[in-house]
Specification:
Layout (H helix, E strand, L loop, with lengths): L2 H13 L3 H21 L7 H21 L5 H17 L6 H11 L1 H6 L2 H12 L5 H11 L2
Helix pairs in contact: 1-2, 2-3, 2-4, 3-4, 5-8, 7-8
């Protein structure tokens, strides 16, 4: 995802007077800008950084949604709408089956050792941003049995 695409979609939401969508996209743009400044690439923001920030924001909103009390239906609805908008921009993550086949194909010699720590270190380096860490961890644990 490119930062310019986010800005363009934010402008479209503003013109359509869709406040909730505009707010969600605006928070993404702000988070990307902050991350870009922190990493020293303010002018030329790489798409990889944008994807990483979107994934982080998606997890944050998911946590808000999960921890929101049931009796606060209005707040839950707001978090759900925000989650839905951010999810549109999130890169597609690998499924557990895709992760399993990738690990078996690329890390067969490490799998033979059954050393979960070494396998996780190697796999996370290659699949960061492409797959959820929790799913990778579960898959590696299953393969190490």
């Amino acid at each position: 995802m490119e930062l310019e695409q986010l800005r363009s979609d934010m402008m479209t939401a503003m013109k359509a007077r869709d406040k909730e969508r505009k707010d969600a996209i605006s928070s993404l743009v702000s988070a990307v800008k902050k991350a870009a400044i922190d990493e020293g690439c303010r002018e030329d923001v790489p798409a990889e950084l944008v994807d990483r920030v979107i994934i982080k924001e998606l997890k944050t909103v998911r946590e808000q949604l999960d921890t929101c009390p049931e009796e606060r239906a209005d707040l839950r609805a707001e978090y759900q709408r925000r989650y839905d908008v951010i999810a549109e921009y999130a890169p597609r993550m690998m499924s557990a089956q895709e992760i399993k086949s990738y690990i078996e194909e690329h890390f067969a010699e490490l799998l033979a050792s059954k050393n979960k720590g070494q396998i996780m270190k190697a796999v996370m380096g290659e699949l960061k941003g492409k797959a959820d860490g929790k799913v990778i961890n579960e898959t590696v644990a299953e393969l190490c049995k």
